[in-house]
Every structure is written in C-alpha cells, then in structure tokens.
Amino acid sequence: MLIFEVLNGGCGCFIFKDDTGTLDPSPEMIVKVDEQAARKKAIDDWLPITSSRNAKWWYSAFHNVTAMVGAGVLSLPYAMSELGWGPGVAVLILSWVITLYTLWQMVEMHEMVPGKRFDRYHELGQHAFGEKLGLYIVVPQQLIVEVGVCIVYMVTGGKSLKKFHDVVCSSCKPIKQTYFIMIYASVHFVLSHLPNFNSISGVSLAAAVMSLSYSTIAWSASIDKGVQPDVQYGYKATTKVGTVFNFFSALGDVAFAYAGHNVVLEIQATIPSTPEKPSKVPMWRGVIVAYIVVALCYFPVALIGYWIYGNSVSDNILITLEKPVWLIAMANMFVVVHVIGSYQIYAMPVFDMMETLLVKKMNFRPTMILRFRSFTMFVGITFPFFGGLLGFFGGFAFAPTTYFLPCIMWLAIYKPKKFGLSWWTNWICIVFGVILMIVSPIGGLRQIILQAKHYKFYD
C-alpha cells in the first residue's frame, strides 16, 4: 500500500514510500501533491497571522506595547492598595522581570527548528508536548485569555466613553453604560474586516501612543492634586478574610497587566526571516523598546496613584480623578482609542483559529464573512465588573500563558542541566506563576459576586 510523508520543516518536500522503501512518484501523484501544496499556500496567504510577513522591528515595539499596556495599568494603583507597599512593589518588579524573561524565551523558540517557524502559540505547544496534547494544553488557555481580554476591553471602552460623556456634559441626561458599550463595539464591526496584523499597524501605533499618553496623564494629574489630606495606606477590608481575598484578586490584576505573551509569536510571524537575518533579532529589539515603555507606564501610575490616594483609589484611576475636567475627558478618550487597538491585537489570533478550523477542517471557502465578533459585546454588557474581571481572568489564564507555560516548554524542549542556572530560573518562574494561577481567580470571583449583589442587568 502506497503512503507518503510530508516533511514539515518548511521546505515543502514530499517523500513517497511503501513497505519496501522510497518510490519514484508518478505524474498523477506529483499533480495531486502540487494541488495540495498550492491550496495550503493559498490558505496560509489568506489567514490573518501568515498572510503578511513584511513587518519592521518597530511594528513589534508598538504591537507589544498595545498588547500589554491597557486596561491593566489603570487598575495598578487599586492593586497596590490591596497588596500594600512592600508586597505591591515586590510583585510589580518580579512580574516585570519574569515576564521579560519568558517573552525572551518565546522569541528564541519561534525558530528553534531550522527551516520552520512556530507562527502560533499552539504550534509551539504541539512541538513541546505533542500534536494532540499541545493543542489541549495551549488552545483553551489562549482562547480564554484572548476572549477574556476582549470582554474586559469591551467594559473598559464603554466605561471610558461614559466617563467622557459625563465629564464633558455633566448637565446632560444620564445614558446607560450598556449603550456606551454598544457604541464602542460598533467600531469593531468595521475593524474586524481588516485582514491581518500589518493591516492594523496604524491602529496599533495610535493605540501605543495613547497608552503612554493616558498613563502620563494619570500619574501627572495625581501629582498635581497632591497627597489627599485623609489618605490611608492600610488595607481597606475590615476583616482578615476580606483582606486575604482582596490580596489574591490584586495578584490577578498584576498578572492581567502583563498579558502580551499570548500574541507574541503571532506578532513575530509578521516579521520576515532568513537564515542570515532571523526574525528574533528585530523582534527582540522591539520587545526591549516595548518593555521600557511598559515600565514608564506601569511603575509611575501604580506607585504615584497609590501614594496620592491610598486605599480610597478606584479600580480605574481615571474614575478617581475628577479635575481638571478637560484633561480627564481627554485621558478617557485616549483609553477608548487604545483599547480599540488592543482589542484588535487580541482578536486577530482568535479569528485565525476560527478561520483555520472553518477553512482547513470544514472546507469553507475563504471569505471575510467568516469574521464576526458580537459575543464579547454581549458578555461585556451583561457582566461589566471591571476589577473582578481583571482578577479572575488575570489569574485563571494569564498566569499560565505568561508566567510559566513558556518555562515548561523551554524545559521540555531544551532540557537544561538539572540544578543549573537555567533549570532553577525556570522552576522559580513556574512556582510563582502557579501560585498566581491558584489564588487570584478566587479573589476575582469573590469580587464579582460581591459587586453582582448590587447590580441590575442591562442598567
């Protein structure tokens, strides 16, 4: 019986075999293989992740800034109020260092196999854990992260639009938050038809600039207000149980703030690569620039916001700020622009997964009609609990995919020497990430339950 193998190393080679050894393929076989290869290339050229590979290193920089700096930075002062000065500063610094290290690992592993690129997170997982197990481990977590981010950004965009409206027109008739979320969502019904990452580079660049802008406004406006006369830095909860659960939720808020790993391979896939000039060089340059921007956004907002307002700070610091009116209105509009870009960055891999399934497995014809995203709008309208959502999603899925899954893959693939520096470094990251994954969803879920007690659906 004739069988053939496909060498999946990126060379497009086919070897034909039977039980007796290698065979010379017949013309019919060659035609069939050429047709299959042509169809695969046509699909890859259409899918959002692989359709364009002409990105520059600075695309990597602003895509990563857009992916990472977002709703999370606005909650960091609130997270500090639930962690306290010592633990809060330690967790912020540890998270910055650990996530930079795990991001470096992913950039390095993108082209670890000569001639092949792992363009998607789950492809790297399949290489590390096996074809089926890799999918089962990575895909559910990645989908939870990316859909979860889109839900939170639906809430953030709607809340920031409402805040902008209320600040600019304080005497106007109040409008339900639900309508503002719907207004925000309507933008994505248009942007969802952009074909790939490079096509949203303009949106992503604008979003990256906005993130630095509103972060600067958040901490500079706080300094302008000065330390509040009745500021308190103790834990806000009145019971030990409440304090512990709030602490857990705050860990999830921090984990949510470092979420860019879920799209890093997909971003790197847009950069051209040759054996002489591998994509990891420009990608890493962009990551370093992005992480400098992340530090400039995160640390001033978290530390200054907590220093000025103490434990009275809101879970979105821009809501705590009331004056000057024009500056706060502008900052909230900056947030709206930024989360539009961030939403697109996280939705693109979800589109890619859906379209791969529909086109490759179910043989649908490639068409833009396949792209549709109203689910997150519905969930965002139904459950607009910003702080609780950050804590829950941050711990449940962001901690694995950001803090320790890259380390597990690194250990599985490279097998560093036991008790060596690389071995210890990876295991420390794994332990820290597992703790985050276990405790922070507990605190986030409790916060959602408490907020839901006083919430009216679609109000």
Can I get a quick summary?
The chain is mostly helical and about 450 residues long.
List the helices and strands and how they pair.
Blueprint (H helix, E strand, L loop, with lengths): L2 E4 L7 E5 L2 E2 L4 H20 L10 H12 L2 H13 L1 H25 L11 H9 L1 H38 L8 H15 L9 H25 L14 H18 L6 H5 L11 H30 L7 H4 L4 H37 L13 H8 L3 H29 L6 H32 L7
Antiparallel strand pairs: 1-2, 2-3
Helix pairs in contact: 2-8, 2-11, 2-13, 3-4, 3-9, 3-11, 4-11, 4-15, 5-6, 5-15, 6-7, 6-13, 6-14, 6-15, 7-13, 7-14, 8-11, 8-13, 9-15, 9-16, 15-16
Subcellular location: Cell membrane
Organism: Salix koriyanagi
Pfam families: Aa_trans
Protein architecture, described:
- 70% of the residues lie in helices and 2% in strands.
- The protein is an all-alpha fold and 459 residues long.
- It is globular, with a radius of gyration of 23 Å.
- The chain starts with a strand and ends in a 7-residue tail after the last helix.
- The relative contact order is 0.19.
- Residues 1-14, 373-378 and 380-388 have low confidence and may be disordered.
List keywords for this structure.
amino-acid transport; 16 helices; transmembrane; about 450 residues; 3 strands; three-stranded antiparallel beta sheet; AA_transpt_TM
Give the terminus-to-terminus CA distance.
66 Å
Task: Please give the radius of gyration in angstroms.
Answer: 23 Å
Major sheet attributes: 3 strands, antiparallel
Biggest sheet, spatial arrangement of strands = 1-2-3
Number of strands: 3
Shape field: globular
Chain-averaged pLDDT: 79
InterPro entries: AA_transpt_TM
Family: Belongs to the amino acid/polyamine transporter 2 family. Amino acid/auxin permease (AAAP) (TC 2.A.18.1) subfamily. Belongs to the amino acid/polyamine transporter 2 family. Amino acid/auxin permease (AAAP) (TC 2.A.18.2) subfamily.
Main location: membrane
Protein name: Amino acid transporter transmembrane domain-containing protein
